[in-house]
Amino acid sequence: MFTALSEQLTAVLKRLTERGVLSEADVTEALREIRRHLLEADVGFEVTRAFVERVRERAVGALQVEAVRPGQQVAKLVHDEIARMLGAEVGPDGRLVGAQGAAPLQFNSVGPTLLLLVGLQGSGKTTTAAKLARRLKREQKAPCLVAADVYRPAAREQLEQLGGQVGVPVFPGKGEEGRGGGVVELVWQAVREAEQARCRAVIVDTAGRVQIDVAMMDELRALQQAVEPREVLLVADGMSGQDAVRIAQGFHAAVRLTGVILTKLDGDARGGAALSIHGATGVPIKYVGVGEKLDALEPFDPGRMAGRILGQGDVVGLVEKAATAIDGAATQRLERKARSKRGMDLSDFLIALKQMEAMGPLKHVLSLLPGVNAKALQAVRADDKRLKHVEAIVLSMTPEERAEPTILTGSRRLRIAKGAGRPVQEVNRLLAQFQQMKQLLKGT
């Protein structure tokens, strides 16, 4: 996510912070570079121009303050203005207002809350509906899903399958779409059934089209007027750059969006959509999809995202990810075992490995650490398949062998390698690394 842009902006700001004295010419040159990098990342021209002008205006005053090194002040200004581009709230002086955070979904105090998901085909709308349902279920919001796409073949079946995976009911069920009245009547009936089922959050997956057309917008307007959703969320492909911005503007003009969910930001997204969409529409980005799994949906915090773009990490995001993914009781047991006289065995090591795997791709976790910039991440050989290989090796051992790895003779190691489908060298390397880890834990 933002890999190239992050590397480029970090390099520019590093040169500024390393200088003890800055002139206006230095700042102008740096802003010229930043402007070029933003445009290369497919950020809108008007959004980029406004960003550069705001930074230049505030940087002139920052150069006069002697208490803080000017390079650090300019870096802080760039961070704040990127956060502003992403939707952070700012005061009259241009500074970020208080503690920022992700823009929350709004819920009704009484009765179910309707969340209408709109977008074009191929943006990941149906999968995002299931991801959002999973997140809201974890937040005790009692969600359900409504299959309102009657045009795409097997769209309802896909949503029912995803709903089953996350343990969320899907309305209407099979054979219920022909009750008359078209999509509006279908959704209306589904909402009534969801209300009877005591659902608090009703996520409506509407039909997409190849492109925005009159029929699509008329249907969405009629649906919006009939069911009065509390949130109208556009699901947009984060890799489509300025196309996503134009799509957001089109939907916003027709149905007044309340938020955006950007998908596919775990790929080669240059960042143009995320950095432009709020400035072009005034609509906040509420969530981002960062992977294909159903737990890969994160709240979008402009300030923290700005820090990640500038290589400052996101420790809060890392803590939140660990809190949701890691079993606290299992972690405490592992800690007690590691500090005991006997120490951890390979069964404990496998549990720890699964805890780490639950946090998501290793490179994504590393990207949340301060000081780990895009260039450093590219140098890291973080192969997530390696964790699967290690798991296969450990599972090919007998319980006795996991408890006492010292009994692993050459013939046993060969049997384990064949069982795991890996070379014997990998088995030897794993055992050596495990012994090193045990020694390290004993020394702490």
Secondary structure layout plus pairing:
Elements: H1 3-17, H2 24-40, H3 45-62, H4 70-85, E1 113-118, H5 125-138, E2 143-148, H6 155-166, E3 170-171, H7 182-196, E4 201-206, H8 214-227, E5 231-237, H9 242-255, E6 259-263, H10 272-281, E7 285-289, E8 297-299, H11 302-309, H12 315-325, H13 328-339, H14 346-358, H15 362-366, H16 374-379, H17 384-395, H18 399-403, H19 410-420, H20 424-443
Parallel strand pairs: 1-4, 1-5, 2-3, 2-4, 5-6, 6-7
Antiparallel strand pairs: 7-8
Helix pairs in contact: 1-2, 1-4, 2-3, 3-4, 4-11, 5-6, 7-8, 9-10, 13-14, 14-17, 17-19, 19-20
Structural overview:
Helix 13 (328-339) packs antiparallel against helix 14 and helix 14 (346-358) packs antiparallel against helix 17. With 444 residues, the protein is an alpha/beta fold. Strand 6, helix 10 and strand 7 form a beta-alpha-beta unit. Strands 3-2-4-1-5-6-7-8 form an eight-stranded mixed sheet, with helices on both faces. 56% of the residues lie in helices and 9% in strands.
Order of SSEs, N→C?
HHHHEHEHEHEHEHEHEEHHHHHHHHHH
Percent of residues in β-strands:
5-15%
Quaternary structure: single chain
Shape descriptor: flat
Number of extended strands: 8
Largest sheet: number of strands, sense, barrel closure: 8 strands, mixed
Could you report the average pLDDT, rounded to the nearest whole number? 80
CATH-defined fold name of the largest domain = Rossmann fold
CATH classification class of the largest domain = Alpha Beta
Output the radius of gyration: 26 Å
Uncertain residue ranges: 175-180
Helical content stands at 55-70%
User: What is the structural class?
Assistant: alpha/beta
Q: Whole-Å distance between the termini?
A: 36 Å
Summed up, the domain count is: 3
Task: Please identify, by name, the CATH architecture of the largest domain.
Answer: 3-Layer(aba) Sandwich
In DSSP terms, counting alpha (H) and pi (I) runs of 4 or more, how many helices?
A: 20
Strand order of the largest sheet: 3-2-4-1-5-6-7-8
